[in-house]
Amino acid sequence: MGRGALVTTRVTVYCGSQRTVPAGYLELAAEVGTAIAARGWSLTWGGSSVSMMGEVARTAREGGARTVGVIPRGLVGTELADDHADELLVVDTMRERKALMEEHGDAFLALPGGIGTCEELFEMWTSRVLSMHTKPVVVLDVDNHYRGLFDWVRELGGRGFVSRHALDSLTITGDVATALDACAS
After folding, report:
1. Edge to edge, what strands does the sheet with 67-72 contain?
2. pLDDT tens digits, residue range 20-66?
3. What is the spatial distance between Cα 20 and Cα 31, in angstroms, rounded to a whole number?
4. Which of 44, 85, 35 is nearest to 63 (CA)?
5. How far is Cα 68 from Cα 135, in angstroms, rounded to an integer?
6. CA 48 – CA 133 distance, rounded (Å)
7. One MF term in GO for this entry (predicted)?
8. Rounded Cα gap, residues 94 and 106, in angstroms
9. I need a surface site. Which of 23, 90, 157, 176 has the fewest CB within 10 A?
10. CATH number of 10-183
């Protein structure tokens, strides 16, 4: 489907915005954007035109996907807001950003990223565990980017702090197609 067509799945993607990420992660973001477009889906992301955020949006758009960026006013200059987005929502706070990204997503996909990506992932994952939504939450974990983090979370489960239900409610994969299939489930 082309841009502006009826879409069945709106994927909210969380990923890195640092300009210092290795080229392989930029290639991954481009692959994800292309794959989202190939499925006729739309993309919601953090509204930046740089780094992984910029690549996922650029390639999704080039493939015909509708792109909705959500960026706080204070980051418009810092993260270089993507003026090519089909819709660019400029908000006042990070909380507003996250709320709109949640509202505009039928599934949540975390690519490699830093603390902001982790914070967004954990909020959507926790909300799902607490039955505040039933949308898929998926982690695309290439190069074992999140291995240490999820080893720790599983350790917390072993100590009784994280339920089996919580652990089972998150899909973690290193494969783009598998991640997008999980977003559609």
Report:
1. 87-91, 67-72, 42-45, 10-14, 107-110, 137-140, 171-173
2. 999 999 999 999 999 999 999 999 999 999 999 999 999 999 999 99
3. 19
4. 35
5. 18
6. 26
7. cytokinin riboside 5'-monophosphate phosphoribohydrolase activity
8. 20
9. 23
10. 3.40.50.450
**90 forms bridges with which residues in the sheet?**
71
Looking at residue 38, its amino acid is A
Q: Residue type at 116?
A: G
Closest CA to 39 of 107, 134, 140, 133: 107
Q: What is the pTM of this model?
A: 0.93
Q: Which two tokens stand for residue 15?
A: 């990923």
- With a CB cutoff of 8 Å and minimum separation 6, the contacts of 156 are 162
CB 142 within 8 A of CB 28: yes
Q: Which residue has the tokens 């909020």?
A: 123
Q: What pLDDT is attached to residue 79?
A: 65
Single-letter residue type at 27 = E
CA distance 185 to 178: 11
pLDDT per residue as tens digits for the range 82-129: 999 999 999 999 999 999 999 999 999 999 999 999 999 999 999 999
* pLDDT (0 to 100) of residue 77: 78
Residue position matching structure tokens 């914070």: 119
**Nearest one of 9, 21, 50, 22 to 179, comparing CA atoms:** 9
